Amino acid sequence: MSDELEAIKTKFVEASSAAETLSALEQVRVQALGKKGAITQRMKTLGGLDAEARKAAGQDLNRIKDEIAAAIEARKAALEEVELEARLAHEGVDVSLPARPADIGRIHPISQTVDEMVAIFGEMGFSAVEGPHIEDDFHNFTALNIPPEHPARQEHDTFYLPGGPDGERKVLRTHTSPVQIRTMQATEPPIRIIVPGRTFRADSDATHSPMFHQLEGLVVDETTHMGHLKGTLVEFCRAIFGVEDLPVGFRPSYFPFTEPSAEVDIGCSRAGGQLKIGAGDDWLEILGCGMVHPKVLENCGIDSTRYQGYAFGMGVERIAMLKYGIPDLRTFFESDLRWLRHYGFVPLEAPSLVRGL
Ligand code: PHE
């Protein structure tokens, strides 16, 4: 091999070892092996030689080409290694940082509020049960001591379904109370349940939606009395609003399925047009309750001389609006994603009793 080729090879091998950066090394590669590089140029001259000479010169050229390429590859690997070390040295990875939760979707304030209610009553030993949205007249009204001509039927603005072959018209349940009946029919006391779920009334304005949510409660046992009802609901109101000394008042009222019946109010202030829960000397109605009417127990085959109980029912939207400062009931069901991003809860950040509210 000619001294000239040997010198070229040495020059490029040395230049690659001397390259301090990957881009400097790339320059060396282009000068040697690129389209217009020294070796490539020489390859092109082979065509002018005769066969013998071309073969010998070709072999020599290919060999130094490979040697130069190998030198460049080796240097490249070394430089990449140095670069990686440098990056690792100043880009510390803190493996103790918790992974970021995937922030997709929001929990609807209704679901969130139901979860919180279920958690509070769960702590008190209640089980959550559900019932059908389409009810029959018996469970929605009659068994609850609301006979056919009772005015409460009109007040409920019931949605009726078309009559069946037997002429019976099913209804969209107007409250969660029919699940009281279903539970008492299906299980023996002691009973201690809550029933979150959808309810329906033909009513639609700023404070009424044709579909809304309620949470029902029912306790039936031999020794259950009104003190239990009061204690449970006072504790619940204080827990859900997070106000330890929240004033809770019981005001006599009427429901056909409870006797005596009461409306529960919580203390608030409306000073300056601003509603503040727990402060001031005003009252805000929050739920209905009472001792289960003996007729209701008997309608479900429960001996009312042996057992008694209490029941309560409340609107979930109302509690969500008060707790989370949501001014308009209709917005709950408009499916506006901007609203949901504002009022909704990021799954892993949502307050819950399990993680501490
Ligand atoms: N069902 C009643 C309503 O919808 C609420 C209620 C439930 C009252 C249980 C007393 C006991 O208004």
Describe this structure in words.
The chain is elongated, with a radius of gyration of 40 Å. Strands 1, 4, 5, 6, 7, 8, 9 and 10 form an 8-stranded mixed β-sheet that branches. The chain has a two-stranded antiparallel ribbon with strand order 2-3. The chain is 41% helix and 19% strand. The protein is of the alpha+beta class. It binds phenylalanine. Phenylalanine is lined by residues 175, 177, 216, 255, 258, 288-290, 311-313.
Q: How many strand segments?
A: 10
Shape: elongated
Quaternary: single chain
Flag low-confidence runs: none
Helix/strand/pairing category = alpha+beta
Beta-strand percentage range: 15-25%
Residues in helix, %:
40-55%
Q: Topology, pairings included?
A:
Elements: H1 3-18, H2 22-33, H3 38-45, H4 51-90, H5 109-123, E1 127-128, E2 134-135, H6 137-140, H7 151-155, E3 171-172, H8 178-186, E4 191-200, E5 211-221, H9 226-241, E6 248-255, E7 258-269, E8 276-277, E9 282-292, H10 294-299, E10 308-315, H11 316-324, H12 337-343
Parallel strand pairs: 1-4
Antiparallel strand pairs: 2-3, 4-5, 5-10, 6-7, 7-8, 7-9, 9-10
Helix pairs in contact: 1-2, 1-4, 2-4, 5-11
The protein binds phenylalanine (PHE).
Phenylalanine (PHE) binds next to strand 9 and strand 10.
